[in-house]
Amino acid sequence: MTDRTVRMGIIGLGAQGGYYAGFLSRGRVPNVQLAAICDTDESKREATEGFGVPFFTDYHDMLASGQVDAVVTTIPHYLHPEVGIGALDAGLHVLVEKPIGVYTTQARALLDHAAQTSDRTTAVMFNQRTNPLYIDLRNLIQSGELGKLRHTSWIITTWWRPQGYYDQSAWRATWGGEGGGVLVNQAPHQLDLWQWLCGVPKSVFAKLAFGFKRDIAVEDEVTALVDFGDGATGTFTTCTHDLAGTDRLEILFDAGKIVVDDSKTVTITKLSAPEQELSAGMNMDDVRRLFTGEGDLSQYTTVTTRTYDSPWSDQHPAVMQNFAANILDAEPLVAPVDDGIHGVRLANAIHLSGWVGEEVSITDFDEQRYLSELNKRIADEGQFPLREEG
């Protein structure tokens, strides 16, 4: 590494790895240089020749090559902790793709290792945290202006995938190969953002359908009810079989409400006072006038609407630029790796609740019970090895 350049290695040259190689080679990320590519498929060597960087078929060889200062892991989910730990042991910085693992014990192994190697930067690719829309909402919520959380719901069913998508490879949409369905593949960004905005839930009860409208073993339909504590609740609905799709986030607070449509248009309603104060101060004539349309709701509310333009193509380079800035200048990370376990644990808890038909604690999550239930399903598939704790 020079004083101002981070040499980046890409481990895994699938669709995501290829996308990263493309924008890095075009100089889209200041202070980051594409330095090497690794993939176990030797046939991809020829496709990388245009990048003019070394190609490896074993990531251990890349880590020991001296050619890279940092790596990004664009590989199957189960491998993220193993490769991340290996890179840290080799003295490298690590940017882990989401999710940081499939189950919490392996995710924690990565986090523990990152804590022991704190002189290296370890981050997670939560690219949607760079979206100005969600940055503004988080700042507003954390200001306390809207008061305490009451309820939130996110319907995110824009993840339509045809059967052919699942038929591309034997590992996809399997418990042993991918570790789950929509919760681990499509929806981790929303699971992260939901908790980033509203806080980490304390428990969840969920209803899942496995292979509901697709010929797969894992979940393609999810409805989860979470408890945030202090009476606040939330619902999360997602699936991969809704061709029309809906993306709507609502967050209700004591003194206002946020509604986000299509991750673009935000409507913020601020109350002139906390709702309970307004309720206590109204007589029944005031209420009648509101219900009949004679009253003016604007005396109690201020409504603003804004549509954001956040090109998707800017988000991944922005996370990489922030990652490099942390290495070079100690700039705070957009998504430190420690944040990655929240989404893994929530997805695990939703799975477990759906499997056993019970409310599942997140505060005191039973990792061993989850892993045991996961391994039952891996054993039933008969294609993949059972999973160990770390």
UniProtKB/TrEMBL annotation:
TM annotation in the entry: none
Occurrences of domain Gfo/Idh/MocA-like oxidoreductase N-terminal (ranges): 6-120
Domain GFO/IDH/MocA-like oxidoreductase: 136-258
Annotated InterPro entries: Gfo/Idh/MocA-like_OxRdtase_N, Gfo/Idh/MocA_Oxidoreductase, GFO_IDH_MocA-like_dom, NAD(P)-bd_dom_sf
Pfam families membership: GFO_IDH_MocA, GFO_IDH_MocA_C3
A GO term for molecular function: nucleotide binding
PANTHER family: D-GLUCOSIDE 3-DEHYDROGENASE, UDP-N-ACETYL-2-AMINO-2-DEOXY-D-GLUCURONATE OXIDASE
Protein name as it appears in the record: Dehydrogenase
Source species: Micropruina glycogenica
